[in-house]
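User: I'm putting together notes for a lab meeting next week and I want to include a structural view of one of the chains we've been expressing. I don't have a solved structure, so I'd like a prediction I can at least talk through. The sequence is below, exactly as it appears in our construct file.
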Amino acid sequence: MDESPQHQVTVSPFYMGKFVVTQAQYEAIMGKNPSRFKGNKRPVERVFWHDAMEFCQKLSQKTGRTYRLPSEAEWEYACRAGTTTPFYFGETITTNLANYNGNYTYASAPKGEYRKQTTDVGAFPPNAFGLYDMHGNVWEWCQDTWHDNYNDAPTDGSAWIENDNNYLRVLRGGDWYLNSSICRCADRNRINPDNSGSVYGFRVVLVLA
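Assistant: Thanks for the context. Below is the predicted structure for the 209-residue chain, given as structure tokens.
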């Protein structure tokens, strides 16, 4: 199973964007907006992994501070915000709490709304760290290359890229299109970095000086 074995990780302090990068922010830095579902406050989507990396580079140059994608370990730590349940708000999920395909239920939760598109960032309750939309809306690119499990994974929270899997990069968080189970804190996804779609976005990490 790709979510095991359970292992202890010590994550160094970092800052993470409270929202995924919006279309307005992306256009301000990149000069374009590739998104299918337009809206300044909606997540930018249809973003390749390489686009997200370029955004971080250009933002760093513009601000004089270092921005990057999160490692997979940092992303899950930030999503959980100290919790151990499947979702940061508890054992189950409803479409009042996140944007996913409400035709699919999780545990004892009822069916809910299927919005068939992204929603504005910040439309649902944040976790204890003040981070929004860590469940659903758009998948979020991480730095890491894909590994089938956590055997030999770094224990310091750094990105795991020391292999030959550059053709697959990690995504976390779930999306508006698929079912509730893929929105879990622990769920992992991967795709070719040259792929994009209306379910792929990202958020940034600010490296501490």
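A couple of points you could mention at the meeting. Residues 75 and 153 are 15 Å apart (CA to CA). Helices lie at 23-30, 49-63, 72-80.

User: Perfect, that's what I needed.
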